[in-house]
Design goal:
Number of helices: 12
Radius of gyration: 31 Å
Mean pLDDT: 78
Helix content: 55-70%
Shape: elongated
Structural class: mainly alpha
Distance between the termini: 68 Å
Strand content: under 5%
Oligomer: single chain
Strand order of the largest sheet: 1-2
């Protein structure tokens, strides 16, 4: 179990940030509808990820870390908190500008209270996103230190979930008007760009060295409709007989599945003669009475 299970909720998690930006570009009565819808959908997505968070943390406590090829997926746990921070802070900032004066009795007071609560909730979730980021970085220390990491497409999890942390950092810096957090966000942005270029270079290198996008390699190991030849289906003894000029036993292979056909001799039940000559010389056991006679 890895945070990749969060993927079904990701479409819901990006609705809130878009709603915060879109609401500031339309008229007030439409903007309020957008903010309410965005906040509702963002809440659904984040509450679903909270349940997956619980299962993920329980797995970390009771079992080993994911294997090296899947371990980059741990960074996906950073995304839900990061996107929710951007959504809440941006929508809370836009709300006082679009609500009517009589909204919930006192529109001005409601807008100010909502903005204050949204900012502090954003700071609270920002700490959660940083915690998952630190845990994910620490989980890769043993892999990097011992050189056990080979490229896989999961390496892109180093990049895209952390963009949510970067945008969340800038949102918190804007909400608190804090220059130190803003500088921290700039540092994260530079590191993210460097990591993205490194991952892209390693992907090109993996293609050239045939580590990915090649038959029987990583995600293409059992996919893509690669056909298995008869030579690939032969055993070591049969290949040796062919090299020595002999004839291996006939075996029909399914070229699509790479396994023997149901009608081939390899599927003949034990103690059943496979050829007519063997049937003539086969030993057929007789009943005890018949053998005595």
């Amino acid at each position: 179990m890895t945070p990749i299970w969060i993927f079904p909720a990701y479409p819901l998690l990006v609705v809130g940030p878009h709603a915060g930006v879109l609401a500031s570009k339309v008229s007030n009565h439409r903007a309020l509808d957008i903010l309410i819808g965005g906040f509702t959908i963002q809440g659904i997505g984040f509450m679903v990820t909270l349940m997956i968070y619980a299962a993920f943390i329980y797995r970390l406590m009771t079992q080993k870390l994911p294997k090296e090829s899947l371990r980059p997926g741990m960074f996906i746990s950073v995304g839900p908190s990061g996107f929710t921070i951007s959504a809440i802070v941006n929508m809370a900032e836009t709300l006082p500008k679009v609500i009517s004066p009589d909204f919930m009795g006192n529109g001005e007071l409601c807008g100010m209270v909502s903005m204050i609560i949204g900012n502090w909730v954003g700071v609270w979730l920002w700490g959660l996103a940083l915690w998952f980021f630190i845990v994910s970085v620490g989980a890769h220390w043993s892999c990097v230190a011992h050189g056990r990491m080979t490229f896989a497409m999961t390496w892109y999890s180093f990049v895209f979930p952390n963009t949510a942390l970067v945008t969340a950092t800038f949102a918190v810096a804007k909400a608190l008007n804090n220059q130190a957090i803003r500088i921290f966000g700039c540092v994260l942005t530079c590191l993210l760009l460097l990591i993205w270029m490194f991952v892209f270079f390693m992907m090109i290198r993996a293609v050239v060295t045939k580590q990915i996008l090649w038959p029987q390699k990583q995600e293409d190991r059992d996919e893509g409709g690669w056909k298995t030849t008869q030579e690939q289906g032969q055993s070591r003894v049969e290949k040796k007989m062919i090299r020595l000029g002999g004839t291996p036993s006939p075996k029909s292979w399914d070229l699509e599945a790479g396994s023997p056909d149901s009608d081939s001799a390899a599927h003949v039940p034990p103690h059943t003669p496979a050829t007519m000559d063997e049937q003539d010389h086969a030993h057929i056991p007789l009943p005890a009475g018949a053998a005595a006679e």
